Amino acid sequence: MCTVCGCSGTVTFDAASGQSHSHSHAGAHSQTHDHLHFGMGAAGVSVPGLSQARIIAVETDILSKNNGFAAANRRVLQAMGAYAVNLVSSPGSGKTTLLCRTIQMLGAAPLAVIEGDQQTSNDAERIRATGALAIQINTGKGCHLDAEMVGHAMGHLALKPASFLFIENVGNLVCPAAFDLGEDAKVAILSVTEGEDKPLKYPDMFTASKLAILNKTDLAPHCDADLAAYEANLRRINPKIDILRVSARSGEGMAQWVDWLRARHMEKTLGRPVAQMHGTGKTS
Amino acid sequence: MHEVSICEGILGVIEDQARTLGFTAVRRITLEIGAFSGVEQAALRFGFDAVMRGSVAEGALLEIIDLPGRARCYDCEDVVDIMDRLACCPRCGGERLLPEGGGEMRIKDMEVV
């Protein structure tokens, strides 16, 4: 369902086979391998009550259902020794190109990709062209992935032990900030053409992220981008955030990004902090 | 931000509680919403009426308790109350504040029959 306009769009999966699929609008989750539906809204029934009114304490998080699915995903990932990254950004920041380059640089490391978009399986096809395992989630009208969708997608991926799992969220700097998918880290990608004040305009996403990748740095001289101002605004919003300057196109910063991933994965495995070869420019 | 999704979340909790506790209608529901939750209250109220229609909470009164934003200042290291995410530290004027509270989106209680 779209969380802005509320229309109940159908969410579909295009499985790892990469084959085209037909829709069977059966309602609840279908059991077939290559197609799942979400977004069928629950309908309660109103029954007039006769008993006296009473106050009940609820004290429950509104997103508790999503958080329950996220916790289940996290347990599965922990048991497999996998490290999951939720890639969040505006549309067009270069997430898929960055992922394709990352997959090449990770070489033989086991990994899988979950691609989220409203429509098309273009991104999953680009990922599969690198030889990596990928599954596409189409959210229909939905503007973010939720933990239940990711749990189903994980069930369809033959995730190998000690894998990296990359979840490319729907391009949207607002809603994905609130939805825990069970990931180990949100990584925000911000391209240098987007404007230095973007972290101030969309603070929630940069608050929720462990790392910000300042992408397309090869374009910076052509569009008068002030990289120091980007970094100052990111640190104003989140003083703890790691920042890397990267160009997926030229390869600048890619080694540091891959080091960051390997160090975080190792930290999770060992349960203690790990130094990495290249710094992330953190000043304090 | 995504107020209709939030209302769907509220309805999910209400329906779970209705099944467990056996009530048949909700007259009033009280939420606690933090200043940094990203929730637009006007949109939440609009979505609430639409989403609750046909459910045990149709026509229920929606009450919202505002919770303040709390943030740690990375200049003076104090924890301060601020209402605006881009506000400066009221103690030292520092600009690097990281939220430590105010993201709440909770159902506090309900009056049911």
Radius of gyration of chain B: 17 Å
Average of the residue pLDDT scores of chain B? 94
Q: Which structural class do you get from the secondary structure elements of chain A?
A: alpha/beta
Strand content of chain B: 25-35%
Give an overview of the whole structure:
In chain A, 30% of the residues lie in helices and 19% in strands. Chain A has eight helices and ten strands. Chain A has helices spanning 64-80, 95-106, 122-128, 147-156, 198-201, 203-208, 227-237, 254-270, and strands at 11-14, 37-38, 54-61, 83-89, 111-117, 133-138, 164-168, 185-191, 211-215, 242-245. In chain A, strands 2-1-6-5-7-4-8-9-10 form a nine-stranded mixed β-sheet, with helices on both faces. In chain A, α7 (227-237) links the parallel β9 (211-215) and β10. The termini of chain A are far apart. The two termini of chain B are 32 Å apart. Chain B has a single domain, classed as 2-Layer Sandwich (hypothetical protein PF0899 fold), CATH 3.30.2320.80. In chain B, α2 (41-52) links the parallel β1 (26-34) and β2 (61-67). Chain B is α+β, with helices and mostly antiparallel strands. At the A-B interface, β3, α1, α6 and α7 of A face α1, α2, β5 and β6 of B. β3 of chain A pairs antiparallel with β6 (105-112) of chain B, so a sheet runs across the interface.
Name a few traits of the molecule.
heterodimer; A: 284 residues; alpha/beta; Rossmann fold; 9-stranded mixed beta sheet; 10 strands; globular; disordered N terminus; B: 113 residues; alpha+beta; hypothetical protein PF0899 fold; 3-stranded mixed beta sheet; 3-stranded antiparallel beta sheet; 2 helices; 6 strands; elongated
Brief summary of the model shown:
The complex is a heterodimer of chains A (284) and B (113). Chain A has helices spanning 64-80, 95-106, 122-128, 147-156, 198-201, 203-208, 227-237, 254-270, and strands at 11-14, 37-38, 54-61, 83-89, 111-117, 133-138, 164-168, 185-191, 211-215, 242-245.
Topology readout:
The complex is a heterodimer of chains A (284) and B (113).
Chain A: E1 11-14, E2 37-38, E3 54-61, H1 64-80, E4 83-89, H2 95-106, E5 111-117, H3 122-128, E6 133-138, H4 147-156, E7 164-168, E8 185-191, H5 198-201, H6 203-208, E9 211-215, H7 227-237, E10 242-245, H8 254-270
Helix pairs in contact in A: 1-4, 2-8
Chain B: H1 3-21, E1 26-34, H2 41-52, E2 61-67, E3 69-73, E4 79-82, E5 97-101, E6 105-112
Parallel strand pairs in B: 1-2
Antiparallel strand pairs in B: 1-6, 3-4, 3-5
Helix pairs in contact in B: 1-2
